[in-house]
Amino acid sequence: MRRIVFYLCVFVLTTTVSHAQQVVAAVNRFINTLNNEQKAGTLFPFEGEERYNFHFVPRERKGLTFNEMNDVQRTAALNLMRTCLSDGAFQKTQDIMQLDAVLKEIEKRKPEDHYRDPGNYHFSVFGVPSATTIWGWRFEGHHISFNFSMDKMKVVAGTPAFLGSNPAVVQDGPYKGKQVLKEETDAGFGLLNTLTAEQLKKTITDSIAPKDIVTFNNRNIAMAQNTGIGYDELSDVQKQLLLQLIGVYVHRFTKLFADDMLQEIQRAGLANIHFAWAGKKQPGIGNPHYYRVQGPTFIIEYDNTQNNANHVHSVLRDLKHDFGGDELLEHYKTAHTK
Questions:
Q1: Count of alpha carbons within 13 Å of 32, Cβ hemisphere only?
Q2: Residue 51 — very low, low, confident or very high, per pLDDT cuts 50/70/90?
Q3: Would you tell me how many other CB atoms lie within 10 Å of the CB of residue 119?
């Protein structure tokens, strides 16, 4: 038995190291395609404030965009994304970027207007990527933000991890019927629709959904815990549905990191997880709704209220490790003052 456990530990460690090496190799391949001017606009200090400059709205950003890349650079950038995102999340990012073209058409913007632009998504790297350093990278633009932090051979964080969709369901044109965040929507309603009248009294915190995710783009978040119905107040089937809902968000990342995060959630105690709902209990346009899943180590938020409830915002936050966490930053500072 000890020999089996030993081999399992070696396998997990080897696999983790291999994944970290893939990420380091991918980011350095990307960096090596950049000229000096592009590097100046893409590479930032790990300890700087820019690493915390998180948002999901159309705005001016730092970092190199797809519009500024050649074909080789675009391929390297996409390969970097694939080392940290699951296949499903990678596809969602591509679909969300294309929705900017849909919005441009809906809003009848001129071709030279780049407020809606599928190529206006930015890559930034923080610190010096290697197998022996602390560093990070970010991919961000309208309705997408992933913030990765690495400590040598370990992915420490991928949060804040935001995905949004406008329209939530495309109504016209060649993309009619497209629903990029259908999984997030269906998993929330799937759990809600199993709740009894008594359970709903505990779950529904307000008849009116908030206008956006409550955590918004705040660097530090503090929200009341134990809001909504607790894990232990659910049936066995409902517990599985809640865990599946959490999995939808955690599995935005590649399997190894997702598994690490799920283990941390479990260690903090499933009994401490709560599910809350606000707004309408029916899906569809015209029915604004919101849900939150919260435990000691994480918060998930989903909000569909804007544009007559056809505009979704969804996010996963790690209460300990967002942006790598304070502990990682202190470790970085200590390593650089020796």
A1: 9
A2: very high
A3: 15
CB-CB contact of 116 with 104 (8 Å) = yes
> Averaged over 267-288, what is the pLDDT?
98
Distance CA 140, CA 54 (A): 8
Q: Cα torsion for 184, 187, 193, 196, to the nearest 10°? A: -110
Closest C-alpha among 121, 75, 118, 67 to residue 97: 118
| Torsion (CA) 206, 211, 212, 216 in degrees, nearest 10 | -100
Residue position matching structure tokens 């544009």 = 307
Tell me the C-alpha distance between 177 and 262, whole Å. Answer: 32
Task: Please give the Cα distance from 56 to 213 (Å, whole number).
Answer: 11
The structure tokens listed for 51 are 């690493």
Closest CA to 175 of 114, 98, 87, 107: 98
Of 185-189, 217-221, 327-331, highest mean pLDDT: 185-189
Q: What is the pLDDT of residues 107-139, one digit of tens each?
A: 999 999 999 999 999 999 999 999 999 999 999
- Peptide bond between residue 160 and the one before it cis (omega within 30 degrees of 0): yes
3-class DSSP assignment, residue 137: strand
Phi, psi of 210 (to 5 degrees): -65, 155
Dist CA 162 CA 140 (whole Å): 9
Q: Which residue has the tokens 């602390």?
A: 134
**Category of 291 on φ-ψ map: left (φ > 0), alpha (ψ -120 to 50) or beta:** beta
Which CA distances in Å does 74 have to 31, 68, 144?
11, 9, 17
